[in-house]
């Protein structure tokens, strides 16, 4: 409890209170109103799009990998290493992740140089891909989004009872009909809840975005950093207001995840 209060509750309260204060400590709503000014709305919109894209791709790819493991499309021995790697990769973010992708897909990264020297393909010129762009950051986020999806959806897939499929087959259902009418409706709350969690996970990622793109991509964490870093052009209390907005968005996503998770567990008991 002491740890939670010191490193979660007190910093959050400091941000919330600071969002409604002036530099002199007086109460104001101007910081909240200023969220609709300048490039701040567009930064929120870009952050939302990156979060939605990485969450959607993470759900689709992670669901396919988890289903392949649970239902035996890959060898059984593959399950334990996959889950172990997912547990590590889902928490691998920040500066190390940004450096790994820069060393792989950056201007002089391993894959970039390999394609240019051996196949004459320049990623940015021929494919329009840059690691410092929207899709570059989205692909980087997938490194921890896909493993997180695998960890969360695997128990839900294992909770599908064999009797349900057998009953559907006895009643004449095909495999496609079983998934469309039985399995997916049961799994839908889990999938949608995990999507909400992945969205919040990407929306709140700060260190990876700053270390990877710097100021080249206009997203909320980078604008927030510019406001609170303390130079003469910054406005720390506007930064608190931006952080407060991020807290609200991630809180809504996490509440949706918890509510949908509770609904999903009713079927799995």
TrEMBL record:
Keyword Transmembrane: yes
Pfam families found in the cross-reference section: BPD_transp_1
ABC transmembrane type-1 domain location: 44-259
Residues passing through the membrane, by range: 42-71, 92-114, 134-157, 178-199, 205-226, 238-260
Keyword Iron: no
Membrane topology: Multi-pass membrane protein
UniProt keyword list: Cell membrane, Membrane, Transmembrane, Transmembrane helix, Transport
Name listed for the protein in its UniProt record: ABC transmembrane type-1 domain-containing protein
Organism: Ciceribacter selenitireducens ATCC BAA-1503
């Amino acid at each position: 409890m002491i740890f939670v209060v010191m490193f979660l509750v007190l910093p959050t309260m400091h941000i919330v209170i600071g969002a409604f204060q002036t530099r002199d400590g007086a109460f104001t709503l101007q910081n909240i109103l200023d969220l609709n000014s300048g490039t701040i709305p567009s930064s929120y919109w870009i952050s939302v799009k990156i979060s939605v894209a990485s969450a959607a791709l993470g759900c689709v790819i992670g669901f396919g990998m988890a289903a392949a493991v649970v239902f035996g499309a890959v060898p059984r021995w593959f399950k334990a290493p996959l889950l172990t790697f997912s547990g590590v990769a889902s928490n691998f973010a920040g500066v190390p992740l940004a450096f790994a992708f820069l060393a792989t897909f950056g201007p002089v990264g391993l894959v970039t140089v390999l394609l240019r020297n051996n196949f004459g393909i320049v990623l940015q010129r021929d494919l329009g891909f840059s690691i410092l762009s929207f899709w570059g950051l989205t692909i980087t986020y997938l490194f921890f989004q896909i493993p997180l999806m695998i960890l969360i959806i695997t128990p839900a897939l294992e909770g599908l009872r064999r009797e349900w499929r057998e009953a559907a087959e006895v009643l004449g259902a095909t495999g496609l009909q079983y998934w469309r009418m039985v399995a997916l409706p049961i799994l839908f709350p889990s999938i949608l809840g995990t999507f909400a969690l992945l969205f919040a996970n990407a929306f709140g990622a700060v260190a990876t975005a700053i270390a990877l793109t710097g100021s080249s991509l206009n997203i909320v964490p980078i604008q927030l950093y510019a406001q609170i870093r303390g130079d003469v052009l910054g406005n720390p209390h506007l930064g608190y207001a931006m952080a407060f907005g991020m807290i609200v968005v991630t809180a809504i996503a996490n509440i949706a995840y918890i509510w949908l998770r509770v609904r999903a567990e009713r079927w799995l008991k």
